[in-house]
Specification:
Layout (H helix, E strand, L loop, with lengths): L2 E6 L4 H12 L6 E8 L2 E8 L2 H27 L2
Antiparallel strand pairs: 1-3, 2-3
Length: about 80
């Protein structure tokens, strides 16, 4: 099975993990994902039935991380 691991570190790791949690727990037929925290990092592991499915899942998770990061930056700038 193809797999990918995404590690998110820094101040936004916990926020990103919380934002990704609903997606991680979705029941999908071709993809399985798990999230854990290790040494202050959010670690997302994705396994899929084929490379197209792992790529699609990774793109979806990366988009969520990018949105979360953008919101954090906007919030910080407005202080």
């Amino acid at each position: 099975m193809p797999e990918a691991v995404l590690k998110i570190s820094g101040a936004g790791a916990a926020v990103s993990a919380a934002a990704l949690a609903p997606e991680v727990h979705r029941d999908l037929s071709r993809t399985h994902a798990e999230m854990k925290e290790e040494n202050g990092e959010a670690v997302l592991s994705i396994e899929a039935s084929d490379t197209s499915a792992v790529r699609a899942a990774l793109n979806s998770f990366l988009e969520c991380v990018a949105v979360t990061d953008s919101i954090a930056k906007l919030t910080e700038e407005s202080k």
